[in-house]
């Protein structure tokens, strides 16, 4: 398992294009390629907004588990369509 020591803070104000915007497909491809390149298997989300991954990945591409009051563990499922 590889742990990425870098992190990306995403607040409630979305700082990347969302579905329907002009550059969404470019960003989604960049995001998925970055996950693959860095061999990311788990993404931890801290905060009440635990569904931020749904803005980029299909819900079939990760499973979420609550591991604390506001900590969510998202295990990536790389056999889903988004990762092909």
Structural overview:
There is one protein chain. The protein has a domain at 40-83. It has a three-stranded antiparallel β-sheet with strand order 1-3-2, with no helix packed on it. The radius of gyration is 13 Å and the shape is globular. The longest helix has 14 residues, at 24-37. Helices cover 17% and strands 19% of the residues. It has one helix at 24-37, and strands at 42-46, 62-66, 71-76. The chain is built from one helix and three strands; from the N terminus they run αβββ. By secondary structure, the chain is of the alpha+beta class.
How is this fold's topology laid out?
Blueprint: H1 24-37, E1 42-46, E2 62-66, E3 71-76
Antiparallel strand pairs: 1-3, 2-3
Average of pLDDT? 85
Number of DSSP strands?
A: 3
Number of helices: 1
Largest beta-sheet details: 3 strands, antiparallel
SSE run:
HEEE
Global geometry: globular
Share of residues in helices: 10-25%
Protein structure class: alpha+beta
What percent strand? 15-25%
Low-confidence blocks of residues: none
Rg from Cα: 13 Å
Strand order of the largest sheet: 1-3-2
Q: Give the CA-CA distance, first to last residue.
A: 21 Å
């Amino acid at each position: 398992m590889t742990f990425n020591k870098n992190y990306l803070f995403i607040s409630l104000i979305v700082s990347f294009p969302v579905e329907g915007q002009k550059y969404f497909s470019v960003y989604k491809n960049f995001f998925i390629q970055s996950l693959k390149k860095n061999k990311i298997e788990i993404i931890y989300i801290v905060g009440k907004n635990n569904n931020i991954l749904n803005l980029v990945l299909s819900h079939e591409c990760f499973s979420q588990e609550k591991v604390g009051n506001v900590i969510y563990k998202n295990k990536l499922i790389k056999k889903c369509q988004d990762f092909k």
